[in-house]
Amino acid sequence: MKTIQAQDKEIFDLIKKEEKRQVQTIDLIASENYPSRAVRAALTSLFVAKYSEGRPYKRYYGGMENVDVLETLVEERAKKAFGLGEDWAVNVQPYSGSPANYAVYRGLLDRGDTILSLDLSHGGHLTHGSPVSLSGIDFHIVHYMVDQRTQRLDYGAIGELAIEARPKLIIAGYSAYSRIIDFEAFGKIAQKVGAYLMCDIAHIAGLIVGKAHPSPFPHADVVTTTTHKTLRGPRGAMIICREGLRDKIFPKVFPGLQGGPHNHTIAALGVALKEAVTPAFRRYASQVVKNAQALAKHLQAHDFEIVSGGTDNHVMLVDLRNKEIRGKQAQELLESAGIVTNRNTIPFDPNTPFNPSGVRFGTPAVTTRGMKEREMKQIASWISEVISTPESASRVKKEVASFCKQFPIP
Ligand SMILES: Cc1ncc(COP(=O)(O)O)c(C=O)c1O
């Protein structure tokens, strides 16, 4: 830091301002988290300077004696974290979740083939076939939705749609779905229609490693994940597929989409994966869920509607229609009170994604800061107060900043 301060005051000042913003606010964005200091230290290592195009021990550059050992070690740690044997192949090179997903599609499908996935406005991700994503441009997309009454996945309906649509790939795993995903049911549907099953566990990877959500691996052909959400690693991604699919998928990462792997990120992922197999991480994963359930319960006590009636994981969607406020305004108001969230569509939303009817709350980051159920009650009370009495925002902001001092970022 001292070096940056001496050489580049402009960037140094921005880093310090961002640190202050993060320290003084409550981060309820479900896809964000704070990696440990050890993970962040690995990100600044000299691995950043090394090119290593290719796969371990099959590279195009010299100077590989440490990078090859590193990448192989991190692949092994990923297998250990998810309890996988020799029949799985791991690729830790994808720069992020979006290119990881696209590499899988281009590896397993021909352009125009059918993908069956959850609609974006029901909790799916852009890269699961949204018309503005290359996934939606290059492939024929059929979407399933959550059930209108229960706001949960209806596996019977998804099975029927799969028989009708005959997809070559089915995607399970989402950005805004608060219930346990029945990967076994998806496996059966995929088998019945002869489709590949891809599980995108970007959001819940840490819960799976920490045994707070069932694993997709017994049922999936390929699993993709980001590494920076509940897993608490660096920004990055992994593709883990059945050995037999390795030669189809991995060449789409390199040379198909990418050049040199980001070795500093891979080193940091290795550190995160070692942390993730500890009893402390298992306690963390369980606390993330307990906190989400507590936050949902206390919000309900303040008359907030939680989509599907609650949460089984780290995330919840709040339907704001009974509060006479839309998602964009709620997000902005909460931010002015030091509570950072994101607006979100709710299933069957009558409003637009730019100004939808809901907000999404998640507990991975606040749990990393050491907050527990008691603090969730306090946060729910602030949310309620600010939404019902916007004038309270500046006072709440001060209270939030003082509260945050008790919960330092690691
Ligand atoms: C389910 C899911 N898949 C993929 C991604 C894409 O990850 P990235 O933003 O790293 O490209 C996200 C990101 O939020 C996600 O929620």
Automatic annotation (TrEMBL):
HAMAP family: SHMT (MF_00051). The keyword Cytoplasm applies. The record marks 228 as: Plays an important role in substrate specificity. It is an enzyme of class 2 (transferase). Catalyzes the reversible interconversion of serine and glycine with tetrahydrofolate (THF) serving as the one-carbon carrier. This reaction serves as the major source of one-carbon groups required for the biosynthesis of purines, thymidylate, methionine, and other important biomolecules. Also exhibits THF-independent aldolase activity toward beta-hydroxyamino acids, producing glycine and aldehydes, via a retro-aldol mechanism. Pathway: One-carbon metabolism; tetrahydrofolate interconversion; Amino-acid biosynthesis; glycine biosynthesis; glycine from L-serine: step 1/1. It catalyses: (6R)-5,10-methylene-5,6,7,8-tetrahydrofolate + glycine + H2O = (6S)-5,6,7,8-tetrahydrofolate + L-serine. Its EC number is 2.1.2.1. (6S)-5,6,7,8-tetrahydrofolate binds at residues 120, 124-126, 243, 352-354. The gene is glyA. It comes from Candidatus Wildermuthbacteria bacterium RIFCSPHIGHO2_01_FULL_48_27b. The modification N6-(pyridoxal phosphate)lysine is found at residue 229. Homodimer. One of its GO terms (cellular component) is cytosol. This is Serine hydroxymethyltransferase. Gene3D superfamilies: Aspartate Aminotransferase, domain 1, Type I PLP-dependent aspartate aminotransferase-like (Major domain).
